[in-house]
Model the fold of this input.
Amino acid sequence: MENARHGLAFASGLAAEDAILRTLDPGDHLIPTDAYGGTFRLVAAVHERHGIAWTAVDLHDRGAIDAAWRDETRLVWVESPTNPALSIVDIEAVAKFARARGARVVVDNTFATPYLQQPLALGADVVVHSSTKYLGGHSDDSRRSTTSNSPTSSGSCRTRWVPSLRRSTATSCCAA
Done:
């Protein structure tokens, strides 16, 4: 998918997002745009209490991005089109801005799908897709995938079998 060299599959959209967010360290800063409500709840209810700071920003406004940027900013989370507002973010411009400052860009490409938009080609580091929407029909499929051209981005999210669950359940974890 996305002509990516690496990819991972997950049982749910939030599991994929959680795996990506777990690549951040306590003290790191995240800039999300107008995104799916579950993404914000995951960041605020889980990752913020583990030391991840975040500032929601309108990624159309370069001044707002500059104002929110910190030395600790490690990740910009783009959703384009956004859910629920369906606004379009200039992924290429945001990727250039973030890369110049040493941060990675993740794009939730659920609504556009790879057919209409290919964020890796626009400079994104990681792309996530929820197949519950347009890839698999609405709610017919609950899987999520992440794709990347970087072995570093892909290697940071690993799958570990949890034998204590006594079933084939994969949980995502952060690489040490």
Observations:
- Residues 154-176 have pLDDT under 50 and may be disordered.
- The CA atoms of residues 87 and 115 lie 18 Å apart.
